[in-house]
Design brief:
By secondary structure, the protein is an all-alpha fold. Helix content is 71%, strand content 1%. A two-stranded antiparallel sheet has the order 1-2. Helix 4 packs antiparallel against helix 9, helix 7 packs antiparallel against helix 9 and helix 8 packs antiparallel against helix 9. It binds geranylgeranyl diphosphate.
């Protein structure tokens, strides 16, 4: 199965000799859902490309995602003890090593992408897409907005939307952008990217709901929004409103994908699985 092959590939990318490498591998190979890689594989399959050719790009996204989780869990940010069902990186390796593990994963991502089996023009487009999604006008900005919202203790719906669009949506959209680049259909990005953002919004609302309704054991991470009085879609819209908004956003994502000339059946099926997730 492609998922197992990818897991084995991911486990081979970083040696385990140095303490920082052990910390990087500890978080990277922990049991995450691998949604972003799976999204890329599905888009590639839908566009007639062998999903294996997406391994380097998918690993790069997963490394950036894992770095963001390590840094998000640090005491200076969310200060969480549990991630992917294990003690967080800083609980296991100490704060300084966890900061370095995040830095190591972020830079390794671009090494892996640059060494991937892609044409130079594709590498350039992939690199720019990932850097923009992760960077200071992407996920980093989203995280920064999130920190400010937490300091204020309240947030209006527009600011929350902007925060999550970048904090969660940008990195969930990048697999779709990369799929279009690798399939030599860059014009599909005009549809795939809004679809990715609609899916990202739905995913975030679902995360907010699960934070109130699931256990830490189920989620493999701390469920701390209520204790932290965090303003989320769940607190802004209530349980029923949040569920409706989530369904609407997933419907919008699928509706957009159906507009493409290619049939996105694998991607739509994966979105169907995301829709019913319980962790
Ligand atoms: C530190 C720059 C920086 C950014 C951090 C990831 C992130 C941005 C914050 C985490 C806060 C959070 C819970 C966001 C909700 C959506 C989200 C990204 C959840 C985690 O992704 P999953 O569910 O995790 O795909 P796994 O572990 O399955 O990969």
């Amino acid at each position: 199965m492609i998922r197992d092959e990818f897991e084995a590939y991911l486990g081979r990318l970083i040696p385990n000799d140095l303490e920082v490498e052990r910390a990087m591998n500890y978080s990277l190979t922990a049991p995450g859902k691998r949604l972003r890689p799976q999204l890329l594989f599905c888009v590639l399959q839908d566009l007639g490309i062998d999903a294996h050719s997406g391994f380097a790009a998918a690993a790069a996204i997963e490394m950036v995602h894992t770095y963001s989780l390590i840094h998000d869990d640090l005491p200076a940010m969310d200060d969480d003890d549990l991630r992917r069902g294990r003690p967080t990186c800083h609980k296991q390796f100490g704060e300084a090593e966890a900061i370095l593990a995040g830095d190591g994963l972020l830079t390794k991502a671009f090494e892996v992408l640059g060494q991937g089996p892609y044409r130079d023009d594709q590498k350039t487009a992939l690199t720019v897409a990932l850097a923009q999604a992760a960077g200071h006008r992407g996920m980093v900005m989203g995280q920064d907005l999130d920190l400010r919202n937490d300091v204020l203790g309240e947030v209006d719906p527009e600011t929350l939307k902007k925060t999550d669009y970048h904090k969660t949506g940008d990195l969930l959209t990048v697999p779709l952008s990369m799929g279009a680049i690798l399939a030599d259909h860059p014009e599909y990005r005009a549809v795939l990217e809004p679809a990715g953002h609609a899916m990202g919004l739905a995913f975030q609302i679902q995360d907010d709901i699960l934070d109130y309704t699931a256990t830490a054991e189920q989620m493999g991470k701390s469920v701390s929004d209520a204790a932290n009085h965090k303003a989320t879609y769940y607190t802004l819209l209530g349980p029923k409103g949040a569920r409706q908004a989530c369904e609407q956003a997933y419907d919008q994502a699928v509706g957009l994908l159906r507009q493409l000339p290619a049939e996105l059946s694998e991607t739509i099926a994966l979105i169907g699985q995301m829709r019913v997730r319980d962790h």
